[in-house]
Amino acid sequence: MADPTRPTRAFDRSIIDGPIAHAVWKMAWPTMLQNMIAGLQGIVDHTMVGHFVGYTGNAAIGVSWQIFLVVIVFIASMYSGMAVLVARFAGAGEPDKVNRVVYQAFLCSLFLGALVMAPLGYALSPWLLDQVNAAPAVKAEALPFLRTTFVCGVGMLMYFMLGGALRAAGDARTPLYLGVVMTVLNAALNIVLIPGLGPFPRFGTLGAAIGTATASVTISVIGLWLLFTHRTPISFTRTMAWRPDWTIIRSLFRFGLPTGFQGVAMNLAGVLLLRFIGSLEQSAQAQAAYAVCYTQLFSFITWTSVGLMGATSAIAGQNLGANRPERSMLGVEAASRIGLIVAGAIGVLFVALPAQLLGIFGMTDPDVIRLGTQLLRVLSVSGFFITVALVYTGGLQGTGDTRSPFYISVVSQMVVPLGLCAVAQATIGLQAIHIWLAIFVGHFMRCLLSVLRFRQEKWRGIAVDIGEASA
User: Fold this and answer.
1) Is 21 exposed, middle or buried (0-12, 13-18, 19+ CB in 10 A)?
2) Global pTM value
3) Who is most buried in 310, 334, 419, 437, counting CB within 10 A?
4) What's the pLDDT tens digit per position in 343-367?
């Protein structure tokens, strides 16, 4: 399977030697484009489901993904630890350590995805949907979607692992190519499976899950082939042992677990927020507005910002590994400026064209349009704060400070917004606008705390090592 005559691609040294703004942009734009294309895929799913199933299908996808993300973000926390180690060792010019780290992350992904997430997710899906107060019609659509997503989630884990490893090593283009192919394949499958074209029956909401699962598994196989044939800066060989390297695994979780707890806190907050939404008088309409506006339209800001976060993490980590911490700071500042420009441009669309944007998803119910318009106006301002927060989070995580973002997320994504909702519910009576404003306050707090923590520069003294390879 491997090609021993083909040399492994070298690391991109311009990340630590070239102009910092150019390095940020070179790392950021492929990931930003990839995430925006992935966001378009979500829009395709919601649009087709909205037209062929109705807003209950939109709500089902939104609720299911919120639950799934709580689980997969925790399992995938090791990829944050992997990225810290890969970036440091790539910056220090140690390719053998990079390969060893990624291979151990690969083995962990197989075990956790196939033997932990799949069986437990299938069994617990009905209970999980009950915890978010999903309306009966929404639950009926969501249960098969969520079970399919859990059972086939190993493909998504592999995709996240490959993208995170390659970006941390300085290769942002290969994940872009993989992401584009996956999105195109996913869209093609959904166009066939959701309405039922040709010989295929009409799967409805379930068709979106089948399409995503099939596409992610296919792309994961392609990505692993690239590693085994030495076509990326990271390479695997058939001589690598299947036994775990506990020194590396401990390091993966040492740096990764705080990020996992952070992801669980954020997504658990999202699930609890859905409980508040589910308690509203017009819960199904509010859940549909939330699913489309926050998880889909707002993703053009958040996924773009996540791309910048990944770029910032790689640049900050590699430059710290090369003993150039000043460039780590400059990279974060440059990425923030890019994020603010994108957030401003998308925010203008939220304010100017809310009804048209909602109409893309087949949203014709007057209450859904009213609630969605409210939320988009709040998110048009909130986007500025979340993009800066995510960029500075990338700077912290890339340099190895993965604990601070966890504490910040607990305060800003759980305590503050959920506390505001609880107070409103107990005093003046909870309305949808109170939930939308609570989201905004949480984003503002996360931005403020992330910037303050990074500028303390405690990350300069964080050391990483995994020792030498065993014989």
Assistant:
1) middle
2) 0.78
3) 310
4) 999 999 999 999 899 888 878 888 8
Per DSSP, the residues of 111-131 read HHIIIIIHHHHHHHHHHHHHH
Structural contact between residues 315 and 27, judged by C-beta atoms closer than 8 angstroms:
yes
**Which range (72-76, 79-83, 287-291, 439-443) has the least confidence?**
72-76
Q: Which two tokens stand for residue 467?
A: 């020792």
Report DSSP letters for 77-100, one per residue: HHHHHHHHHHHHHHHTT-HHHHHH
Q: Where are the alpha helices (DSSP H) in 152-245?
A: 153-168, 173-193, 205-228
35 contacts 178 by C-beta, under 8 angstroms: no
> Where do the DSSP E strands lie in 146-275?
none
Give which of 163, 160, 168 is closest to 12, Cα–Cα. 168
Is 92 buried (19+), middle (13-18) or exposed (0-12) by CB count in 10 A? middle
Task: Find how far residue 381's CA is from the centre of its chain.
Answer: 21
CA distances (Å), origin 163, targets 157, 167, 383 = 10, 6, 25
Residue length of the chain: 471
Express each pLDDT in 357-416 by its tens digit. 988 887 888 888 999 999 999 999 999 999 999 999 999 999 999 999 999 999 998 999
d(CA 316, CA 218): 32
Summarize the chain as % helix, strand, coil (round to 5). Answer: 80, 0, 20
pLDDT for the residue numbered 80: 87
